[in-house]
Amino acid sequence: MTGRPATPSVVPAAAVAERAATDGPTVDVLAAAGPAIDRPATAQASFRGNARRVGWAGAALARAAPIVGALAGILVIWYGVSYLVLPASQRFLLPPPHEAYGSALSNPQLMQPMLEALGRSVAVAMIGLVAAVVLGIGYAVVMSQWGWAEKVLYPYAVILQTIPILALVPLIGIWLGYAFTARVVVCVIIALFPMISNTLFGLQSAAAAAHDLFTLNRSGRWQRLTKLQFPAAVPAIFTGLRNAAGLSVIGVIVADFYFQQGSPGIGGLLRIYTQRLQMDALFTAITLTALFGVVVFMIFAALDRAVVGRWYGRTTR
Q1: In-domain check, residue 251
Q2: What single-letter DSSP state applies at residue 139?
Q3: N or C terminus: fewer CB in 10 A for the chain?
């Protein structure tokens, strides 16, 4: 004879307490060992919260470990070259980290103008990035709507990308001067092409079946653009935004390095420190520039994950 396997019954906590009062302590032992007694919801919620915190901490450590390892490796190599490769008479060319950073960070007369210059460079880079994003998206939208516009306009974008920026710097300086406006224009030129190419690719990536559906519903050009092409282009637009953000930092350093009128940016200070062989200030300025680029990239990478990740099922980049 076959029968259905027995399943454990759920025993309420109040019934367990009543049985314990009448049957003795053995009921408590059996109830504690049994899996069917309902547990407080607060304990389960606390367990889930602890698990989430442990998981988040583990993920953060896993992401930070390669960065910490890379920084440690750089410091080891730096100390090795400074003390083991270079003779003492040439150690000023690559002073060890504690000397390079220590003398600069402890000198307010050196750090204050350096931080002010960095702030001016940040302002130029962000303005140039915003201009590049607006112009790049608009340029790509025009090309995506008319085939003849893509054939006419895209070669100009390619030419702007392939011409070395240093070849354009003299012309930009002559036409626009050597101050703030010229620096912004250099940032825009360097950061523009990734926005154009990625946005155009995204706008053209919508499925043909989706286009057919919009055609059957007699949708207009504007409705097709806003409700089909732009949503399909969001991942590509954010990819271009990340690339453009990094290139805008490069653009502002190049512009500061060559345009010396007005208040200097961090690139202008790099030129001054190089000419004066102020190695401690030079290494500190280079480190601040690198941190600036890393922070900008991380901000836009996090924005990419927050905006795009859930919509398109990508939690990591």
Answers
A1: yes
A2: H
A3: N
